[in-house]
Amino acid sequence: MIARALALVLVAAVVITAIGIAHARHRHRQLYIEITRLERARDELNIEFGRLQIEQATWAESNRIDQVARQRLGMRFPSTQEIVVVRP
Amino acid sequence: MKFVRTSGNAKRPRPRAQFDLRGRLLLVGCAMALGAAALVVRAVDLQLIDNDFYQKQADARFLREIPIPTSRGMITDRNGEPLAVSSPVESLWVNPQQIADDPDALARLAGATGLPLDYLTRQVSRYKDKEFMYVPRHRRISPAAAQKILALGIPGVYSQREFRRFYPQGEVVAHVLGFTNVDDRGQEGIELAFDEWLSGKPGVQRVIRDRHGRIVEHVDLVRPAEPGKDLVLSIDRRIQYLAYKELKRTLLETGASSGSVVILDVPTGEVLAMANLPSYNNNRITSGARDAYRNRAVTDLLEPGSTMKPLTVAAALEKGVITPTTRIDTSPGWIPNGKYRTTDLRNYGVLDTTGIITKSSNVGVAKIVRMLGDREFYEFLRRFGYGERTGSGFPGEAAGVLPEPSRWSGTHKQTMSYGYGLSVTPLQIARAYAAIGNGGIAVTPTFVKGQRGEARRVLDPKVAEQVMKMMQTVTEPGGTATRAAILGYHVAGKTGTARRSRAGGYERRYIAFFAGLVPVDKPRFAMVAVVNDPDPSRGGSTYGGGYVSAPLFARVMEGALRLMDVPPDDIDTWLAAQAAEEARRARAAGGAAMPATGGAQ
To answer: How large is the ipTM?
Structure first.
């Protein structure tokens, strides 16, 4: 009687663990897909950031700034005559 | 016959006793049990004993470990401005096994990529037994272009992410940064020196792939990708650009063939700018023009010429054989050196030590160096880092040539006193001058911000100050480099004009040097300007460092001082200049209306 009950419990335990394993495996795959998706999203954002940095650096390239300042904005370095020295 | 036998059998049925049912059942049962046993044994064999082997075989067919690409670290200047950035690109590839027998797919691919169909077919059939082949001329293309081709859905065509290096500043910083190869490994410059630090570790993930190489399922992450670390250089982008621009202008104006500028931060030894011409665009590396790839400021060996004189004088001052006011007779403007002569441009007569530096008298330093022992002079130069690498860690850095006294000929010491018979790099000159400006403490130059180089005392602080004062006279009226003067700052420096050596003698071509420190009060920058082979026919007869390199020094330093907010140490001259200007303006205003140019109030 006891033996039969034990067997029943064990069978139930086996079934439950089997389902548990299948479930865990399923969860693992789903989570892995999720993390890959998130990582890809993160990479895309990083890449976008890098692209924007390159773009920013290209716009801020010294030669370009120099030319825009001089030609389009008509800027120049003040000559020494134009600088007023304030004695501290 | 047939009929007869059948009827015969029917007539004589088999006796019952001969039919052994048990025996037969036993036989069949045994056979089946054996079969079942064989199956069980096989199953045990497969599942338990040889499991690993078969699992491996199965995995080898479907499971793949594929790399996760990662980006190289960013290189920025000292203010965080990007100098080298990795950006993703796509590399198209095909599976030849899949596409080789599919003329339709090949034709579509040829159409999409613009490659000739017969060429593509040839390439694909050549790698027919492989599973991977890059589409020719479609490595590292922009993600948008790759997406366009992939969107056509041609079977067997895939794309792989890679990273490409972009250098927004291009040729301005090309020599310092260097470049990477197609596999994203550093090949030159900082990219090579800090390759370990910059390059990331690609990760590995395990996936299940089908027969066509498509990924069916991501199974596991074996190792996450480690992106490369960023690197902050000591270079200041603005000063670098200024140095490059002014060097370019100088080369154009003087018709010189090449040039270098090195700017060091005196207290820390950081390289603030290092520009060379001719330069190249490191975004687009071609196999030609290797000559332009060289970072001349650290690889080229030059005879330092007169920039050597402050060191010779410092050696004698430290030894105590002369003082700044010791009077030395340089007439008649030449002095024998073995069977040769050491000559001055003209006869300067009696000069004191300061005057020898001011006028750059070869005869003067030749007489001074005669008071020093061979070994002493050699050891002194050695201490200043001549004849050995500066320790900056830049790939391909030259050590220079400083011969041992035992190998000196009779004329060697005297020749060396004014900068011939030894070779140094522009960076070595900059380092030696920075040591003088730093109160006699030499700091190992570094390209990394905040990484303080090793500091070592190489000169008595009092002597360093005396030499600074002497070099200050060079840029003042009467000196050889009045064009190096900067309004509002005291400048210490030394010109140099060295004949270019070549096998068997010296050419009538020159290298114009200027090495200087500013401001004298508390030196912040040490700068060396080297202009190689200026055209003497341009800009008068003067080819000298005072004419060619000194103005370059002044223009770059003026900007650098402003950019780095270095307070002026010579306000009085500035005020005087301003008072004179105000007086002029007042006179002009008295006569007519204010000139339109007098903008600032």
So the answer is: 0.73
Alpha helices in B127-236 (DSSP H): 143-150, 174-177, 189-193, 195-198
Pairing of strands B505-518, B492-502: antiparallel
Whole-number pLDDT of residue B214: 64
Q: Which residues of B are catalytic?
A: 306
Q: Which of B244-258, B326-340, B585-599 has the lowest mean pLDDT?
A: B585-599
Residues of chain B found within 8 Å of residue A42, distances taken between Cβ atoms: none
pTM above 0.90, yes or no: no
Nearest-angstrom CA–CA distance, B495 and B550: 7
Q: Which chain B residues touch A58 with a CB distance below 8 Å?
A: 168
Contacts of B171 in chain A (CB under 8 A): none
Domain architecture of chain B: domains with CATH:
66-232 (3.90.1310.10), 237-281+293-578 (3.40.710.10)
**Contact status of B578 with chain A (Cβ, < 8 Å):** yes
Structural domain spans, chain A:
2-75
Q: How far apart are CA B131 and CA B150, in angstroms?
A: 18
Strands B231-232 and B75-76 turn out to be parallel
Cβ contact (<8 Å) for B218 and A32? yes
Q: Model confidence at A68, in pLDDT bands (50, 70, 90)?
A: very high
Of A32, A62, A80, the CB nearest to B237: A62
CB contact under 8 A, A62 and B220: no
Q: pLDDT for A36-51, tens place per residue?
A: 889 889 878 887 888 8
